Amino acid sequence: xxxxxxxxxxxxxxxxxxxxxxxxxxxxxxxxxxxxxxxxxxxxxxxxxxxxxxxxxxxxxxxxxxxxxxxxxxxxxxxxxxxxxxxxxxxxxxxxxxxxxxxxxxxxxxxxxxxxxxxxxxxxxxxxxxxxxxxxxxxxxxxxxxxxxxxxxxxxxxxxxxxxxxxxxxxxxxxxxxxxxxxxxxxxxxxxxxxxxxxxxxxxxxxxxxxxxxxxxxxxxxxxxxxxxxxxxxxxxxxxxxxxxxxxxxxxxxxxxxxxxxxxxxxxxxxxxxxxxxxxxxxxxxxxxxxxxxxxxxxxxxxxxxxxxxxxxxxxxxxxxxxxxxxxxxxxxxxxxxxxxxxxxxxxxxxxxxxxxxxxxxxxxxxxxxxxxxxxxxxxxxxxxxxxxxxxxxxxxxxxxx
Length: 402
Description:
The chain is mostly helical. The protein has a domain at about 1-155. It is built from 16 helices and two strands.
């Protein structure tokens, strides 16, 4: 007997239309249809049988649309993000209604859901709502997870998938990246290799990563962002046997050659990786402790990217101001140390710029601004940062008398 499946939509084309409104293709330049997609899902819910993935996509998207400081208060924006995120995670990992009794972390592992999602859901439910920085990042990652684990697989064309080099089947991009990274870990974890063989393996891994990221339907940057997320969620950048205070040089030496080759073609990988590192540093309540090994590892990676000579050429892409803002918003033992290093480096940069300007003003011919400073300033402007023309410093709640 044929199995009958009831859906809230009349035809599959309607579901595909809603998908294209939630996740418009890269070539689309028309009006924003996300609000219409949310309204459609709301209507479908009146009919019933709406998959949780579809409902969660609508809730998370609606929270993003609600993120307007001109019309809504910060409290309501944080509450909307928290409610949408908590419902998304709970609907996936809660096993009290059906199925065997398992912990939320066990259920999350079965689904391939990052454990940090469960931790953030617990924090948002039982403690103060997380900061907007954390909630915005978590919401974006949730929508990416929903694409890879539901929306990319609703048609037979493999839309949203990426083909892994050496394989014929189209699979989700995150799965393809994970396979490449795991193969690299298995190869580098064996007995010591000759330098030539090791270099060949690093070159091959970097090339495959670039190929998979380039196959992303949303472009190379989306692939590089997914790569950074997988590196952190899978704990590939850390030694599982490492103890507090141990050196991280072995992991730096393992990953630097591969990541630098990727950065040589697309320097934005440093931007995505450093942002992912600082988000993981402030996202988990356990990382607030000065005795947390994972938190120390995250801090050491950020310090390495910020100060190591091998990353000097790519360092203009390092989002110093953004990371400093996150550290100031989430003050912990490790973020305070990181903020001090960032501020000290900023002071050194300012001193160099002042010295350059003084030299230029006393010289018969004005010197050109250093290329690195120009690149750094341009990158800041691309991400919405800039230098204030005038800074009016006064206590909160005090208005100017002018």
